[in-house]
Amino acid sequence: MAALVSMNDTIAAIATPVGQGAVGIVRLSGAGAIAVADAVFSSKRGKPLSAARTFSLCYGWIVRDKEVFERAGRTPQAMPELIVDEVVVSLMRSPHSYTREDVVEINSHGGPRVLSVILELLLAKGARLAIPGEFTRRAFLNGRLDLAQAEAVLDIIQAKSELALKTSLTQLSGELSGRIKGLRRRMLDVLADIEARLDFSDEELGGVPDDALSVLRTTLQALRSLLEGSFCGRIVREGLKVVIYGRPNVGKSSLLNALLRTDRAIVTAIAGTTRDTIEECVSIRGLAVCFVDTAGILEAHDEIERLALERTRKAIDACDLLLFVFDGSAPLGREDEALLSQVNPLKKMIGVINKSDLPARVDASRLRGLFGVRPLVHVSALEREGIKQLEDEIFGAVFHDPGLLSADVLVSNVRHIEILKNSAASLERSIDSLQKGLSPEFGAADLRRAVDGLGELTGEVFREDVLDVIFSKFCIGK
């Protein structure tokens, strides 16, 4: 953590977003937080912050020269040029604070210049500017939060939907951490038993008992259960990316407008109106869904079309779900089939038969043969008919198991997912070697890797470089 001078420093930062607002907050944390704030704050009652109780609010002014201001009578009228702002200061003493250090928050008016001047005064009195995520990092290092909970703080700040917020709050409460720590303790108990047998092998303690293997199998199943919901968890956290695809003039842009319930894309009867990808997001049942309207180009004939085709292909590769749109008022053409053949057969896809307000001419049975078990939905984007059914299918593509929504824990963080995958793989290898009666050293080594992996998820085992990466994603004031 090269950027940090010392954990003993008193740190300060603006905790509210950049720009104008009714209220702004400048936050301090550290052993000297109260003294530094006291050096620039003059209470209306004349009492220093050091005399205030924890969880108390103090009204007064932030001043450029406290000694001169108070000698002049401690009133705004006496020396108005010394006053930076009228403020309310909140005080939280260690260990009953977010960082488990003394924390002071100065609540001022929300103008950017006001906040900057207050911060400059605090830095001049001995505080150091916090680096991104340093307040939450201290909360983790001081035992206020574990690492999974600390990451949930960022997820709450960045939540794009109600479901994402709900999942993040559950993780902040410690539900995921408690589950992981419990599984890790089970594996540690078995590991301790195996290592004891290795240390005292001359006493013929025997092989690994069946009940220990049973514990490991149950633990492996629990890890796999967490991973089963990880796709849904990631989508809830990051939002569902849905690409609208199909040949020109099937109504892709009209469908985008219908799903957004606003005229976002230009719609004309001229084929190829959309020459670039258009991206907009909405909420469907609390899930953030980002729709991407693409150019329906099979072959590029100029540089613009080449770039449009390249962007379309990139969008399709990166999306979570594809809406393949057909014109229900026209026969299925070779261009439809050619575009469909270019889609990865493993890609999640919903067929959308558009223009249901016109006489049907598409061969539905042939289309069903091409789509197999994938859903086919009839809509009229122009008349906004069938959109609710399509939204249900989109939601169901993620939450195909309704029980996932009521799950106690939904793993959503990519780092957590990778750790769980690696830990499960290590545990599976350990079980396999122990079952085959191989030397216990092999099983113990893989089991240790699984145990350490879960420890990295919660922060019971951590490296400074990993912490640097995690907390660099936070804003400075958090």
TrEMBL record:
Binds 1 potassium ion per subunit. Mg(2+) binds at residues 253, 274. Its EC number is 3.6.-.-. K(+) binds at residues 249, 268, 270, 273. GO terms for cellular component: cytosol. (6S)-5-formyl-5,6,7,8-tetrahydrofolate binds at residues 27, 105, 144, 478. One of its GO terms (molecular function) is metal ion binding. It is an enzyme of class 3 (hydrolase). GTP binds at residues 249-254, 268-274, 293-296. Keywords: Cytoplasm, GTP-binding, Hydrolase, Magnesium, Metal-binding, Nucleotide-binding, Potassium, tRNA processing. It comes from the Bacteria. Belongs to the TRAFAC class TrmE-Era-EngA-EngB-Septin-like GTPase superfamily. TrmE GTPase family. Homodimer. Heterotetramer of two MnmE and two MnmG subunits. Exhibits a very high intrinsic GTPase hydrolysis rate. Involved in the addition of a carboxymethylaminomethyl (cmnm) group at the wobble position (U34) of certain tRNAs, forming tRNA-cmnm(5)s(2)U34. This is tRNA modification GTPase MnmE. The gene is mnmE.
